[in-house]
Design brief:
One of its GO terms (cellular component) is membrane. The protein has about 375 residues and is an alpha+beta fold. It contains five helices and 21 strands. Helix content is about 30%, strand content about 40%.
Length: about 375
């Protein structure tokens, strides 16, 4: 009985030892398998990814300023009166679109009547002197007129021709019709200034213009530069412009002139930006917000923002080392300008960064 009980105990102990050994082996095999299944970056995977190279660029900073839209001075015409008179028909209003040669207003003028009389008289004199010249030439050939008579006839004809040409030029400048003097648009564009009404007395020596017409296919944006920003703004810097009327539309251009004078009233210096104005969306005197990309004078490593991974309030990049080795590198972003990030620490020029599927690689390598 005792021997049988002892044998059972020994068998049970042996079974437990064997089971423990088997369990230990199973755990070791699982650990080995887990170790073998750890994520690895292969050369084949790297060849399928986009790679960016860190460059050293001059760091750019953005300056936010204000400005107003103004007509292009080279495409703007002020119309002054050439004669005196009284207006009778004003055909356009402020803001109207006019075509080149379109009549803006008509005016009754005594001077125009005088110009017309001079033209008619000069044309009649030209016809008369021409007839006398032809007659004198015939008489000279027949021996009935002297050479002196012929020269005098030629001189009278030349004077009459010159006077007729002058009178015609005056009338071509001072356009008129049956109702009087016509004020015409010398260019096509918008009426941006109007100082004329019906039945208004106009003098030729008046210093005030009657109309101002501007072609708004291109416009200027006059930027206000405060004294603290004067040293940061230079000719050629690119700018982006937005307006209250079109907050989602960005107009681009470059600073083409910096005025080296400070406005004594506003205490600002002006810079000028010439930009295209498709559809004539920008109007004179519109308020504009101007973002200037200015050089800081400091060289820093620059990367595309697509290579950044943001996790736990920190920025990281994946750096490729060797053929098939990728490591996670924390970086400090000094500033961001559009799709470029300037890095103050963490990378150096020439480093190769993973620029596609970096989130997947980051999560896989982090674990």
């Amino acid at each position: 009985m005792y021997n049988r009980y002892k044998g059972s105990v020994l068998a049970m102990v042996a079974f437990m030892i064997t089971a423990g050994m088997l369990q230990g082996c199973t755990r070791n095999e699982a650990a080995e398998n887990a170790k073998d299944e750890k994520f690895r970056v292969t050369e084949k995977l790297l060849n399928e990814l986009a790679i960016d190279t860190v460059k050293e660029n001059n760091a750019v900073s953005e300056i936010s300023l204000t400005g107003i839209v103004a007509p292009d001075e080279n495409k703007m015409v002020k119309i002054f009166p050439l004669v005196s008179g009284i207006t009778q028909d004003v055909h356009v209003q402020l803001g109207d679109v006019v075509a080149k040669g379109q009549t803006l207003a008509s005016m009754r003028s005594v001077e125009i009547a005088g110009f017309t009389k001079d033209l008619i008289a000069s044309q009649a004199d030209l016809r008369n002197t021409k007839r006398i010249l032809q007659s004198t030439q015939d008489m000279y050939q027949s021996g009935l007129a002297s050479g002196k008579d012929l020269e005098q006839a030629k001189s009278d004809y030349q004077k009459a021709a010159a006077e007729s040409k002058r009178a015609g030029s005056v009338m071509s400048i001072n356009k008129s019709n049956g109702r009087g003097y016509e004020i015409k648009a010398p260019i096509g564009g918008y009426v941006v200034e109007k100082n004329l009404t019906d039945n208004m007395q106009v003098r030729a020596d008046n210093s005030q213009n009657l109309f101002t017409i501007a072609d708004l296919s291109t416009v200027f944006v006059l930027v206000n530069i405060y004294e603290s920003d004067i040293s940061k703004v230079q000719t050629g810097y690119p700018v982006k412009i937005t307006t209250l009327s079109y907050p989602d539309k960005v107009f681009t251009g470059k600073i083409d002139k910096v005025y080296s004078m400070i406005d004594p009233e506003n205490k600002v210096m002006r810079a000028r930006v010439k930009i295209d104005n498709p559809g004539h969306l920008l109007k004179p005197q519109m308020f504009a917000k101007v973002m200037i990309s200015a050089s800081s004078g400091e060289d820093m490593p620059a990367i595309n923002t697509r290579a950044l991974v943001f996790d736990n309030d920190k920025n990281y990049v994946l750096i490729r080392d060797g053929k098939a080795h990728v490591r996670i590198q924390p970086v400090t972003v000094a500033k961001r300008i559009e799709d470029t990030a300037y890095i103050s620490s963490g990378v150096k020029p020439g480093d190769q960064l993973i620029a596609s599927r970096q989130l997947f690689l980051y999560e896989s390598l982090k674990n």
